[in-house]
Write a structure and sequence with these properties.
CATH architecture of one domain: Roll
Distance between the termini: 53 Å
Helix content: 25-40%
CATH topology of one domain: SH3 type barrels
Order of helices and strands: HHHEEHHHEEHEEEE
Shape: globular
Largest sheet: 6 strands, antiparallel
CATH superfamily of one domain: Ferrous iron transport protein A (FeoA)
Number of helices: 7
Number of strands: 8
Radius of gyration: 19 Å
Structural class: alpha+beta
Length: 226
């Protein structure tokens, strides 16, 4: 099992990044949520959580959920930074499609040296977000804070700007990309299907329909624009 200089394996880093992502929506992350996200058996998750707790990376009580410690948060943010920088480098410099970069970055994120990371930052111009609009943590571990809401939550008539799109479903990214929905896209909600959950949007003067499975995955800046 490959490890970094701190003795934390690549698998552990995957768990920490996953826990960090899930903790954006809940204070304590359940074992089942981690298992679903990583597509592994709950028993395997429990075993790994015990190891992470032994390393003081998480606070873990069986059946009560998981929370990152300060050390775990710092380590997770370093992994997130690596991942999102690699995504942006692959997309902006190598021309890898935005629906492929998440998977490719996952393969590379664990083996990027600090030197190479600094070179990527210099080439990319000290970027703040990845190709999907998600914030890239700074080198000191701080994260850009934004007030966001889901497209599935806003009312008809809302006008605003797309902030980010969840990046772990390549098919979703292809779908919304074909509809012209990317970070920084200006949208207006024209109508909503009360029963199906889909929406009709105005984008660049054209009406675009999005299905119900896509709208919760699209995040908008909270401030409504005129």
């Amino acid at each position: 099992m490959m490890e970094n200089e701190k003795g934390i394996s690549h698998a552990m880093e995957d768990y920490l990044r996953t826990i960090h992502k899930l903790s954006e929506q809940t204070e304590k992350v359940s074992t089942s949520a981690i298992a679903d996200r990583l597509d592994v058996a709950p028993a395997s998750v429990t075993k790994m959580l015990k190891r992470l707790a032994e390393l003081a990376l998480i606070k873990y009580e069986p059946y009560k959920g998981v929370k990152l410690t300060a050390f775990g948060e710092k380590t997770a943010l370093a992994v997130v930074r690596q991942h999102r920088l690699v995504e942006l480098f692959l997309h902006d410099i190598l021309g890898v499609p935005w629906d492929r970069v998440h998977e490719e970055a996952h393969r590379l994120e664990h083996v990027i040296s600090p030197y190479l990371q600094d070179r990527m930052v210099a080439v990319l111009g000290n970027p703040r977000v990845d190709p999907h609009g998600q914030p890239i943590p700074s080198k000191d571990g701080s994260m850009l804070q934004r007030d966001l809401c889901r497209l599935s939550e806003v009312e008809v008539g809302f006008s605003g700007c797309v902030a980010e799109i969840e990046d772990d479903d390549a098919e979703l990214l292809r779908y919304v990309g074909e509809k012209g929905v990317y970070p920084n896209t200006q949208i207006k909600v024209l109508s909503r299907d009360r029963f199906g959950g889909g929406v009709s949007l105005l984008i660049d003067g054209e009406e675009v329909s999005l299905g119900s499975q896509a709208t919760p995955q699209i995040w908008l800046f909270q401030e409504e624009e005129a």
